[in-house]
Amino acid sequence: MRVLVVEDEPILADAVAEWLRREAFAVDVAHRGDEALERLAVNDYDVLVLDRDIPGVHGDEVCRAIAGGDIRILMLTAASGVRDRVAGLGLGADDYLPKPFAFVELSARVHALLRRTRPAAPPVLERAGLRIDPGRREASRDGQPIVLANKEFALLTELVRADGAVVSTEHLLEKVWDENIDPFTNVVRVTMMKLRRRLGDPPIVETVAGVGYRIR
After folding, report:
1. Which of 64, 149, 171, 188 is deepest in the core (most CB within 10 A)?
2. pLDDT digit string, tens, across residues 169-206
3. What's a BP term from Gene Ontology annotated to this protein (predicted)?
4. What is the DSSP string of 89-112?
């Protein structure tokens, strides 16, 4: 799952991004509203974490520009009054979190927003003996826990979420890695090799030549 964090305070933006990366999200960061709109135009994000008071293009205008689409919007602001929350939601935000906030609450709200995607995603994903709990960052196969690195966990989540459909390498690059990744890299293949070793036998991830991968 891919998240765009828009926050004009660099230290806070980097801290939020690092926290979400530990939760196996792919995260990009923008410090201005115009930067955010540029990234939103070219990348397929699942959640936008948006500070309301940002330079360039105000956060309200960014929210209005994308509200109603598939991306979920979590608005951040130092203004925590009822009128401010109502105004933020009225702009099209899906959730509203006043500053200061606890990072654990932030990530819980991001996970909750992901469950409200179209179609709605269940809180726990299951297929072919695999069980993935993104909120708790837990994975198991046939009841046995699997210890996964962040990118391995994110990769497996995308495959299980596809429910048997083939997932292309391009889609995995888009959803599991951030905008700094080299589009010609073999990182998907390498990470998939590691994931397959973690999952053990019998093999469960199938390669569809020239197309991508799927859970059998």
Report:
1. 188
2. 989 998 898 887 777 788 999 999 999 999 999 999 99
3. regulation of DNA-templated transcription
4. HHTT-SEEEESS--HHHHHHHHHH
